[in-house]
Structure formats: structure tokens, C-alpha cells
Design brief:
It contains 19 helices and eight strands. With 358 residues, the chain is α/β, with parallel strands linked by helices. It has four domains: 115 residues, Beta Polymerase, domain 2; 85 residues, Hydrophobic Seed Protein, CATH 1.10.110.30; 93 residues, no CATH class; 51 residues, no CATH class. Strand 4 and strand 5 form a beta hairpin. Helix 6 packs antiparallel against helix 9 and helix 14 crosses helix 15. 34% of the residues are buried.
């Protein structure tokens, strides 16, 4: 583990490393995040920090390419007991040289034992989860990432806490939700999510979860909402996902439906990443992927620049390119430059109504 920077050690009293970093160290992993707690009041930290939470209880600081989140505590016991899950309720005192030792772990809630048992448990499930329902989504994220089992009281509290998840800021829900969808043990987590009514509260359909888990993480979101676009709109309102994800899902589902209905507009709009994902979706849902595979293997012998050279302009470029792709992929014309240029001239000269059936 990287040493805690000396400037933090000299500025912060009674400093402890907590949360995910301790969990990772106890699991033999390199920490991906550094949460620190101190008895020094946050307003007295004489360093350039930024607000990391809306309630003002956490600040962040970037040092040597690493981000550190810093919170204030008065009682170490109270701080650890109020955390979401016991696996995140362990603490390591930071030494003067910036190092920590697992032998000095403070584990008041039995987090290390639960970690070894692969168990997700909240020390005070009803208090800790009801105080912040986003912790339920975080719990599903941990199940999906690490394959945890869930202690029965914690499961009950997750189910009941989820009923008030609409009371929290929508922007806080998506980050753990995305990790839930992308996790290695998504199928296990999704079954638990369905059991606690997650799909009905956050409008994330949990059908075909075995198929979804077989897909690479970026392709799972489109698979979840395939043929569920009415639910997708409710999901957007409930979760406020990033625009890039909305666009990704919308485009992939649109391409999937075009292929399904033997339309070819996708051929002039799709990117390489989208092609790979579209192929995965078609195969996962046992749809005919021959046309898309043929497209992925092909380099069309003419380009939009060739059409501009013969006088084609504006919207007609994509229309004619789409028609050319259609005839090449359906094997009605060979992918030879001279043949395609002749076809382009012909299409350009004709009324589009005589040939355009895209």
C-alpha cells in the first residue's frame, strides 16, 4: 500500500484508515480508495480541500495523484458502528511514517470475521441502512463484485430501507448501481435485488439475468432494457444516469431492432465498440447475427468522399451509403469499387422512392 502523505499525518490528529481500503488490505488487495478519519475538525484543516459530500461531513484532497476522503470523528466506536456494513467498519491507525499494520486493526463490529465468511452484514442494520437507503444499492454492488452472502437481518433491513430510496439525491444512486450491473457475480446479486423489490423501486428490469451476466459489462445495460423502453424512461427519472449511458443504451437497442426488422440505417451510424456489443447482444438473445458479422468483416470499397466527388450532398450521402451497404450485405452486388461507383451514380440519378427501402 502507498504511504499516507506526510502532510496529512502532520495536519490531522488521531488519524485512521477506514472503509474500503482496510477491506482491500485484509483481502490481500491493493486499495483503490483511501478513506481517512480524524479528530481534527474539518474546518481547521489548513490544506486545499474540496467538499466531497452534500452534508459537509467529508472533504477530499488530491495528493501525488491519489484522492483521499477525510471525515471527522469524535468517538471511534460510534464512527465504526454506524457504517454501512461490517466489512467497511474496520480501522487501521496511521503511523507517523505513513504506514499501517493489519496487526493493529480495530475491529469492533466483527468485520474481519464476516470478510472471511464472505458475509455481508450490517452491525445495526435497521439504523444504518434506514439512515441512508443508498447503502442498499452499495450492498448489492458488494454482492455483485465479491459474491457475498447476506445475513438475514441485513436482508430484511435492505428490503425495508429500499422503500424510501426515492427520498435521497438521485445523483448518488447511479455510481454503486453501475458497479452492481458490471460485477463479476451479477447473477447472484440480481436475484437478491429481485427478492428485495429493487427492480420495482429503481425500474431496473431483472429478467434474463443469466444471459446478461454472460455479456461484457458495457453490453449489460442495453440488454437489461431490451424491449423495455417504457421502463427505461422511468429508470431515467428515478436514477438520473449519465447522458453518455442513456445514449449508449438508446443507440444499441435501436441498432438491435433495426437488424431484427431487416433495416440497414445502422450501417452508416454504428461505431466499432457498438458493433462488438451489438454482435454480443444478438448472439446472447439467439438472434441471427450473420448480417452484422458480414458487416464487421467488410471494408466497403466506396466512401462518403467518393459520393461527394460525384455530386452527392447532405442527407443523400447517408441514404445512398445505406442502400449500398444493404445491397452488399444481402449479396445483391459484389463489394467491388467500380460496381459500387456505378450503383452510386445510378442511385443519385434516380428518384429515391424508386430504390429506397431501408
Amino acid at each position: 500500500m502507498k504511504r499516507i502523505p506526510e502532510i496529512l499525518i502532520s495536519s490531522l490528529e488521531n488519524l485512521y484508515l477506514v472503509g474500503g481500503a482496510v477491506r482491500d488490505l485484509a483481502s490481500g488487495l491493493e486499495p483503490q480508495e483511501y478513506d481517512l478519519i480524524t479528530t481534527t475538525p474539518l474546518e481547521k484543516i489548513n490544506l486545499k480541500t474540496f467538499a466531497e459530500s452534500n452534508n459537509g461531513q467529508t472533504v477530499g484532497i488530491h495528493l501525488k495523484g491519489m484522492k483521499y476522503d477525510i471525515s471527522h470523528y469524535s468517538s471511534l466506536t460510534e464512527d465504526l458502528e454506524r457504517r454501512d456494513f461490517t466489512i467497511n467498519s474496520m480501522a487501521l491507525p496511521v503511523k507517523k511514517n505513513g504506514t499501517v499494520s493489519l496487526e493493529e486493526m480495530v475491529d469492533l463490529c466483527g468485520g474481519l470475521s464476516d470478510l472471511k465468511l464472505n458475509l455481508l452484514r450490517s452491525f445495526k442494520p435497521y439504523d444504518n441502512l434506514f439512515s441512508d437507503p443508498v447503502r442498499v444499492v452499495r450492498g448489492l454492488r458488494f454482492i455483485s463484485e465479491y459474491g457475498f452472502d447476506v445475513e438475514h437481518n441485513t436482508m430484511d433491513a435492505m428490503k425495508n430501507s429500499l422503500k424510501i430510496v426515492d427520498k435521497v439525491s438521485r445523483e448518488r444512486i447511479f455510481p454503486p448501481l453501475n458497479k452492481f450491473v458490471e460485477g463479476r457475480y451479477f447473477q447472484k446479486a440480481a436475484k437478491i435485488a429481485a427478492e428485495i423489490g429493487f427492480d420495482k423501486r429503481l425500474f431496473v428490469p431483472l429478467e434474463n439475468i443469466d444471459v446478461i451476466e454472460s455479456l461484457n459489462p458495457p453490453c449489460r445495460w442495453p440488454a437489461i432494457f431490451l424491449k423495455k423502453m417504457d421502463v427505461f424512461n422511468k429508470f431515467i427519472d428515478a436514477v438520473f444516469p449519465p447522458r453518455r449511458l442513456i445514449r449508449w443504451i438508446t443507440r444499441l437497442i435501436g441498432f438491435f431492432e433495426e437488424v431484427q426488422h431487416e433495416r440497414f440505417g445502422w450501417t452508416v451510424r454504428i461505431s466499432e465498440d457498438e458493433i462488438n456489443c451489438l454482435l454480443s447482444l444478438l448472439k446472447a438473445f439467439k438472434m441471427d447475427s450473420d448480417m452484422v458479422e458480414r458487416y464487421a468483416r467488410s471494408n466497403l470499397a466506396v466512401t462518403p468522399k467518393d459520393l461527394v466527388f460525384i455530386g452527392v450532398r447532405g442527407r443523400e450521402i447517408s441514404m445512398i451509403m445505406t442502400e449500398i451497404w444493404k445491397r452488399v450485405l444481402t449479396l445483391k452486388i459484389s463489394n467491388e469499387r467500380n460496381d459500387l461507383l456505378k450503383l452510386a451514380h445510378k442511385l443519385f440519378e434516380e428518384d429515391e422512392k424508386t430504390w429506397k427501402k431501408i
